[in-house]
Every structure is written in structure tokens, then in C-alpha cells.
Amino acid sequence: AKVAEWREENKADIRPGVLFIDEVHMLDIECFSWLNRALESPLAPVLIIATNRGIARIRGTSYKSPHGIPIDLLDRLMIISTAEYTEPEIRRILQIRCEEEDVEMEDDALDLLTRIGSATSLRYAMQLITVAHLCATKRRAAEVGVEDVKKSYLLFVDLKRSTTFLMEYQEQFMFSEVDANAPAGGAPADEEDDDDDDDDDDDDEEEEELEDDEEDEEEGEQEGGEAAMEQEGGAAAMAAEE
Hints:
The protein is mainly α. It has helices spanning about 1-10, 30-40, 70-75, 85-100, 105-120, 120-140, 145-155, 160-170, 190-240; strands at about 20, 45-50, 55, 65. The longest helix has about 55 residues, at about 190-240.
């Protein structure tokens, strides 16, 4: 209350901070509702959120939305479009990373690392810097050379090479149930057919059980009706005798 008073009297100036949320698609619908309400406050901070998802399900619901964020919250945001790094940009980023880690690298080795980053990912190329530096230290070299980068590249595979290796030799791994001819991320065709057949069999069994239950109920009703008629006839006969 006192802060609001000072603000009205121009004795104080409120400077909102900055709230940065990375991987915002991991929030659920309750968190998004709270953010919507918090942004309406005059004391709300500058909100910056980041995500790498496309069309994704909003956690806590069964609905899908761009980036996994509710539409009403997206409508309040200024969306910044991004683009892939160019080779000169990747080279510059790797050079800055080498300076931060106190790694001396030859120009040819940096060029090779830049090409690796373009072909795989920037994160993978940045992780190779430390490994290449260790290789150079082991051979007592003052700078990281091309041979050190090549050795690091052979020792640690990237995502694409790892996926190719797994698809080629997946039958030799334990609990391998992936069909090599099946599309990535999909279930094998044979298993899908078996699942469909099992579902059909389950449906047929359920229908037969329902039909049996209905027949039993009808028979029970008929028997109950006959018993009631017999009781009524017996009662009538006793009344007549009296």
C-alpha cells in the first residue's frame, strides 16, 4: 500500500524485473492460467519464454496448441522468429567458446569443427572442444589440431550416426522389438495387425457375453412369471375350496 502511495505521489518509480522461462511447454494448464493472471498486474515483470516445440499437447489437458502454449496466452506475446546459424556464425560461436575454455585451436581444426557443427549440431560441436583439448594435451601439443578433432569425432558419435547404428544392429540388442522396415517412431506392422485382431476378438467376446447375459435375464423373467402364475393359481384354488 505504501509503495502504491509513493508511486501516485511520484516519490517512487517501480521498475519491473525480467522473468525468463525456458522449456515453457513443460508447464501445465494451471501454471499458464496463473501467468495469464499475473501479466494483468501493473507490477508484472517482462516475461520472456522459450520453447522448441511445434504443435504439442498442453500439459494437463487433451488439447493441442502451437508450441504447447494456450492460445489466449500466445495472443499476449510478441513471437520472435529464429533461423539456423550460418557457417560464419557457427565458427564465431565456436571461437568464443574456445576462448571461454582457454583452448588454443588451429585455424584448420576450427574450420573442420565448423563443418561438423553445420552437418550435425552446434551443441555437439561445442562438446567436442573439450574432448579435442584433452586429446591434444595427451600428445603434449600446445594447440588443438585437425587430428585431435577427428579423433574426438570418431570417439563420440552424434545423434544421426547413433540412430543409424541402432537401426542397423538393433536385432543384436536385448529386448529388440523394432522392425527395421517400420517407419521411425511407429509400431511394426505385424504388431499393429495383431493388436487389431486382438481388439476384434475382445469385442466379439464382449458381444457374446452381453448376448448370454440378455438370454439369462429373459429366461429368469419367464421363470419368474411362470412361478408367479402358479402361485396365483394355487391361491385361487384354495379360495375356491374354502
